[in-house]
Amino acid sequence: MDYETVNLNEKKIAGLCVKTNNLSPDVNRDIGTLWEKFLSGGVYSAIAGKTGAKALGVYTDYAGDEKGDYNFLTACEVSKTDSIPHGTVIKTIPAGKYAKFTVKGDMVKAVVNFWTELWSMDLPRSFVCDFEEYENADMQNAEINIYIGLK
Fold this sequence. Notes:
By secondary structure, this protein is of the alpha+beta class.
């Protein structure tokens, strides 16, 4: 898989969070339910101070590597954090070096295939924070930039 190395500034995000694990039989349900609540449940539209229209899927607070527990957030970048809806959390995507991948196609399949392929790559991951940035909401023809934190 091709990628470019980029340096990103810190981003403040607001959204919903769930602790999960890739080895859990409930991981897909956990993440899917969170996306549904975030997008269809009115949380996304209720967040004030969005810096753009892009939704983010954020992986953080890793307990080791991709086999351990982590927090997954459905979120958006915000410029202010003083008026977020009840039940949402504020987190920071840290500044740093990231591998930037771009995937296109069926939104769910493209992301699942990406992660499966990433796990077999020899990439110097930091396991601090990774995130998906959804460029559009087209389920069949999605474009998603995926940023993987590097050491």
